[in-house]
Known about the structure:
By secondary structure, this protein is mainly α. It has one domain (24-219, 260-303). It has helices at 7-33, 38-47, 49-59, 71-94, 97-104, 107-117, 125-142, 151-174, 180-196, 199-202, 208-234, 237-240, 247-259, 265-287, 292-303. The model has no long low-confidence stretch (mean pLDDT 85).
Amino acid sequence: MKHSDRPLLGLALRALAIVMLSTMFMLAKYASQTGVSLPEIMFWRQFVTLPMIAGWLLLTGNLHRLKTRRLGTHAIRAGVGLTGMVTTFGAAILLPLAQATTLGFTTPIFAVLLSVLVFREKVGPWRWAAVILGFIGVLIVTQPGHLPASALGTAAGLAAGLMVAIISFQIRDLARTEDPASVVFYFALFGTVMVGLTLPFFATAHTGFQWLTLLAIGIVGTLAQLLLTAALRYGSVATIIVMDYTALIWSTLYGWLIWNQFPPSTTWLGAPAILAAGGIIAWREHRAGRIAMARTQAEARAEV
């Protein structure tokens, strides 16, 4: 039996990966509220990945997978990726987790717009309808004209959707010549160096529990990346991507259990439109036989 003939296993792995990602954002929000700065959170999210990926490749005899001739491209990708990390973590820190998660689902919508504006691709009526539907959902969630809980957080949430779409195109380009392990490793390597330069200005003393939280952020984030990759061995993107929307369940649960927060009614009204828009775009991509974009979007979201 081929790996791709086990869709149930792929769905299970994808669902577990989404639990890990949701947990990572919850931990980042919690760490920030205990006094840990965003640059420190970003640094440890990246730094912990290096020994985990390198050790795994070394133990499996696959260290050669890190060979690359495109270090410059990896460095540029890391710079853009760090911007994406600022927006995704920033949204999770500034907004209720469920609202930040909902705004993050705008990535497929931004991907369509970028395809038209940057790559001059032709977009049919189905995808344009999805963009309009998603835009209506965003208007409902963000309530323009009203003062949201955090205007900066709302901006970060929408920027996160855009940045993940941009990163997806970068990963798609790198994937033409690079091993997936190489893409993850060099993003972590360059990201660690870049963010590390800011630590003298932001680093503070931490309690033992804060250090454990930072370590957990790095471990959980790396495991999410590995699980996303493993899920794609057993099921197609079109089959397993539906599990991404379970992130709204976990973010709502964490928000209730830890912060006693429930999403406002506008989130529940706007979220179905945004989710439906993403579903339509994924369906059209699958029908057209072009699911690589959805795959790289998932990888990009995991990295931030």
